[in-house]
Each structure stands twice: as C-alpha cells, then as structure tokens.
UniProtKB/TrEMBL annotation:
Belongs to the glycosyl hydrolase 3 family. One of its GO terms (molecular function) is hydrolase activity, hydrolyzing O-glycosyl compounds. GO terms for biological process: carbohydrate metabolic process; peptidoglycan turnover. It comes from Chloropicon primus. It comes from the Eukaryota. InterPro entries: Glyco_hydro_3_N_sf, NagZ_Beta-hexosaminidase. This is Glycoside hydrolase.
Length: 102
C-alpha cells in the first residue's frame, strides 16, 4: 500500500487491517457451544463484534457457553467482544433503491 507518496511499513499496513476488521460485525450459520473456526479467525484479525440469529440459538445454556467462549477468545487477543442479537420476527426496515440505496 502507498500513503503520501511512500510505501507503508508492515506495521502500518497491519494497523490499517486491524482497524478495518474492528468495523466488521460477523455472524455464523449454525448453533455451537464454543467459538468455531470462523469466529476465531475473525476475532484474531481484529473483529470485535458478532451478531446471533435464531439459527445460532438452542438454549440459554448453549448461548451462555458460546458467548463466554467467544469473549474469552477476544480477551486472548487483548480485546473485548460486543455480542448483539437479532430480534427474530420483528419489523424489518429495508433500504431500497427508491430511497437512493442500491
């Protein structure tokens, strides 16, 4: 990468990648009790937020175990993890092309 007419150092490039990763909210397809490989990779790259959908939930104990595991994974990388939930069955507000969103 180039910045201000010069090549970025490896440290600068890594910092940009980490900052970009911190903007990513990740999800995953199935329920699990521990952070899966997908979650571990994204947390290691710098992601600090995840969202749980109905497809990720089996029971309160399973969700507690999953969230604890992912939070510990984030702490191992010196970060805190924000865990969000999607309200299944709630009203959906979509951005449409009629509103200038594509």
């Amino acid at each position: 990468m180039r910045r201000e007419g010069r090549e970025w150092s490896e440290e600068e490039e890594e910092e940009v990648r980490r900052l970009c990763a911190s903007l990513v909210v990740f999800g995953f397809d199935s329920p699990c009790r521990e952070a899966n490989g997908h979650a571990k990779r994204l947390i290691a790259k710098g992601s600090v937020a995840t969202i749980l959908f109905g497809r990720n939930v089996e029971s309160p104990d399973q969700v507690k175990s999953l969230c604890s595991s992912m939070k510990l994974e984030a702490l191992a990388h010196g970060r805190k993890l924000l865990v969000m939930t999607d309200q299944e069955g709630g009203k959906v507000a979509r951005l449409t092309s009629q509103e200038s969103f594509t």
